[in-house]
Amino acid sequence: MSELQFYHNPKSRAQIVHWMLEELGEPYQLIAMNYGDALHTPEFLAINPMAKLPAIVHNGHVVTETAAICLYLADAFPEAGLAPPADQRHAYYRWILFAAGPIEQAMMDRHRQLAPDAKEQTMIGYGTWERAISVMASAVPATGYLTGPQFSAADVYFGSQLHWLVQFGMLEDRPAFHGYLQRLRCRPAFQRAMG
């Protein structure tokens, strides 16, 4: 049996990893972390020098960065079936990293009410909010999941970002998003992690 510690705060991106862990169905130790001093202890900084959540330690190996943790866990526990076969991972990698890069940056800039000017749009990964959301909408399937009929870690990561954008009123629940979000929100692992 593997040893897996999960550093968590429910008001953080750790909720994505919590959902991923629930999808795996493997045992893990949830270590609740408060913001503030707890993230700046020498013990936690040895795990994540950025003083950020989430973080996992699996069999003595540290993994940080939410998308990296999701990708790592899908590979570390292949029996859960959360990663497509290696030769079919094009959409899987694309949409996880699109959500981790352009969407994350666009979401933070939008929250801070920053709008890039024309020159900045050529330099930043998401271009414009409208373009990033349009591409996100184009990825959402009418049926099934991001990589086809099989649910994957891409749906955990990308779906979490979309869920939060709608939940916090940063994005209207468009018809294109509604069915996909409903499929995700009905998953028992989602309900255990987010509930």
Largest sheet: 4 strands, mixed
Shape by Cα distribution: globular
Distance between the termini: 27 Å
Mean pLDDT: 95
Record the strand order, biggest sheet: 2-1-3-4
What share of the residues lie within helices? 40-55%
* Structural Rg: 17 Å
Quickly give the structural class: alpha+beta
Strand content: 5-15%
Spell the H/E element sequence: EHEHEEHHHHHHH
> Low-confidence runs (pLDDT<50, min 5 residues)?
none
Walk me through this protein's architecture.
With 195 residues, the protein is of the alpha+beta class. The chain is 51% helix and 9% strand. It has nine helices and four strands; from the N terminus they run βαβαββααααααα. It has a four-stranded mixed sheet, covered by helices on one side. It is globular, with a radius of gyration of 17 Å. The two termini are 27 Å apart. The model has no long low-confidence stretch (mean pLDDT 95).
Features:
alpha+beta, 195 residues, 4 strands
Briefly summarize what is shown.
The chain has 9 helices and 4 strands. It has 195 residues and is of the alpha+beta class.
